[in-house]
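Reply to dn_fold:

You asked what the input looked like. This is it:
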Amino acid sequence: MSKEAVRVSLNGHANIKNGTFHHDSTILWKELSNEALSLLKSGFYNTARTLAEKSVKEGTDLLGPEHPDLAFAYDVLSDCYESLEGFEESQRLYEQAGLTEGKLDFSLNRSLEIMEKAHGKHHPFLIRILSRLSFFHFRHGDFAKSFSLQERMLAIQEQHRGVEHEDVTATLGWMAFLCGLMQDYGVAESLLRRRLKILERRLGATHPEVADCLAELADLQNKKDQQDE
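and this is what came back:
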């Protein structure tokens, strides 16, 4: 994306007419989020964040703070914050933009709240947001909070995708990993054994994933033994 295209986007849905830019108030606020995603993919992190924040503000002013369409705007805004956080010059960008980690947490939680009010607390739409929130708390060392979000996600996955779906086994493995970090080896073992049974039924006893799960159980048993000494 060219610098001129970035400037047009940042100036707010401008149309070119007679060599000048004119604001077009008829363009929907949702397009701000779509443009933010495009800019994000092109590496214009700060500009994308500015558009995403503007989309949330304009959408809120137009529709009210609880409208379900705002969940997408908050989701895009979360993408922008995550990209800034992961960018190699993130510290400089954070200082320049005045960002805090709390903004990412807030954006994800707002997206979750809006989706819950629109679709209920057990809709599969929530899975992606719960997963992102769980990883956010994991990265910041709150393993208990991360686990509770994974637990919610697991219940939705089992309800809508089936108890032996591959996503269920992945979530069980992640929950066991979190329990291991918290040294709750009993719960971790229980989760891994649930995962092992599903893998054996789905893939067969000689599958590499089954072997990996057995190795994780053996490693877990060693940690339990050391804890008991």
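Strands lie at 14-17, 20-23.
Hope that clears it up.
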